[in-house]
Backbone:
């Protein structure tokens, strides 16, 4: 992945959105688009996980499928880019390493914003190197229906007040959609139309993903 040449590093605001994306869905896309606008991001880089450290390998689709579905989903948005940085790694990637990669190689000099759902950001408190991470980027924590932002605000205050200024809370239109929900529907042969962009829906059908 490289940035379009017309942009000089150092002037860019870049959002990073990591995820398993198994599959990517409109919840991810609405989140990225809202963050792009609210934080004047030049690009949002989607980073499908290779071997997600927190998820059981057996239950996750091959990285190449998840990567291609992410490409299909963002094709029509010139501000959205997909990175292979985690997919190409043999070992599980930790967010701290990915953020370091972007500060040194992927987007040196850019202002980095790590976009994550309120559920996923709570995991940051368990990262051993999170204070180093704090200095490398700003976090955008977005609401998910079952994870209200007030709860997150209270938790941050209690658990690590020093993180408060580094986390921006972003309310997005509530979409009670998850990849788990889509996988379950696909396994039952239920329609997944409009929950994910059409090319992704077609890709899932063509490759028979999520069939029992
Ligand atoms: P799964 O059900 O497999 O865990 P997921 O829908 O949570 O999938 P992930 O790939 O785990 O998707 O999530 C990537 C990022 O997107 C996480 O930061 C997650 O919090 C966020 N996210 C996922 N779905 C939504 C949604 N509907 N609204 C807001 N954020 C979301
Ligand atoms: Mg998840």
Residues:
């Amino acid at each position: 992945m490289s940035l379009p040449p017309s942009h000089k590093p150092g002037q860019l605001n870049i959002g990073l959105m990591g995820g398993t994306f198994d599959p990517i869905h409109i919840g991810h896309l609405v989140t990225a688009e809202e963050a792009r606008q609210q934080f004047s991001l030049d690009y949002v880089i989607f980073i499908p996980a290779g071997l997600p450290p927190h998820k059981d390998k057996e239950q996750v689709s091959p990285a190449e499928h998840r990567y291609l579905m992410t490409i299909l989903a963002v094709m029509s948005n010139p501000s959205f880019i997909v990175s292979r940085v985690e997919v190409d790694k043999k070992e599980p990637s930790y967010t701290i390493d990915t953020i370091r990669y972007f500060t040194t190689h992927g987007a040196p000099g850019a202002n980095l914003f790590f976009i994550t759902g309120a559920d996923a950001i709570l995991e940051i408190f368990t990262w051993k190197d999170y204070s180093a991470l704090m200095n490398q980027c700003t976090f955008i924590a977005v609401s998910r229906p079952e994870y209200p932002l007030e709860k997150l605000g209270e938790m941050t205050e209690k658990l690590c007040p020093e993180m408060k200024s580094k986390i921006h809370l972003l309310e997005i239109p509530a979409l009670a959609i998850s990849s788990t929900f889509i996988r379950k529907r696909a396994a039952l042969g239920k329609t997944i139309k409009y929950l994910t962009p059409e090319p992704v829906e077609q890709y899932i059908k063509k490759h028979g993903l999520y069939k029992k």
Summary: The mean pLDDT is 87. The CA atoms of residues 21 and 66 lie 6 Å apart. The pocket of adenosine-5'-triphosphate (ligand 1) is lined by residues 19-22, 27-28, 31, 116-117, 119-120, 142, 144, 175, 177-180 (CB under 6 Å).
